[in-house]
Design a protein that fits this description.
Layout: E1 6-10, E2 13-18, E3 26-29, E4 37-47, E5 50-58, E6 65-72, E7 81-84, E8 88-91, H1 95-101, E9 108-115, E10 118-123, E11 126-131, E12 142-147, E13 153-164
Antiparallel strand pairs: 1-2, 2-13, 3-12, 4-9, 4-13, 5-6, 5-12, 6-7, 7-8, 9-10, 10-11
Length: 166
């Protein structure tokens, strides 16, 4: 883990918590780097703003990485693509679609697919964001779960599966 918050396994889930007083982002990061992949997971956010990072590089900043995250929270931006320490928001989902698909505080199915310069994010079986032919995106990096700094955070992940693709 990258300092900031606390990660633990509880009742078959990965639980991340962090107090508002913690300014650093906490990350639970893979040692391995991934290029092309499909990741499935379920998440439930009780409070705060989390993220599912992928194709990230480690940095020496308060957020600890640069690269993509699929937004994981209870807002209408859940499933959006944000590029940390780079371009900021790259794609945001349609809030009307999110309202129909996602129930705040409930378990949500997440599917992230990254192949070359194309990235898609699906929630509960429906594609919510897509980035096509993006020459600027990082093509390889770590995968990580995020606890946002400066917020009361409580997020759970379960059933996480990574499938590497050619």
């Amino acid at each position: 883990p990258v300092p900031g918050g606390k990660w633990e396994v509880l009742n078959g889930t990965i639980l991340g918590t962090s107090p508002r007083s913690e300014p650093r982002h906490g990350l639970l990061m893979t040692d391995k780097r991934f290029k092309n992949f499909r990741v499935r997971a379920k998440f439930k956010v009780t409070s705060g703003d989390s993220g599912f990072y992928f194709r990230v590089e480690k940095t020496k900043t308060h957020v600890s990485v640069r690269g993509f995250q699929a937004e994981v929270d209870n807002s209408k931006e859940v499933g959006g693509l944000y590029e940390t320490s780079m371009r900021a928001w790259v794609r945001k989902p349609d809030p009307a679609v999110i309202s129909k698909l996602v129930k705040p505080g409930a378990w949500t199915d997440l599917l992230v697919t990254a192949i070359g310069d194309t990235i898609t994010v699906s929630l509960n079986g429906a594609k919510v964001t897509e980035l096509l032919n993006d020459a600027k995106c990082l093509k390889e990096g770590h995968i990580a779960l995020q606890l946002h700094g400066g917020q009361d955070m409580r997020v759970q992940f379960k059933d996480l599966a990574i499938q590497e693709l050619p």
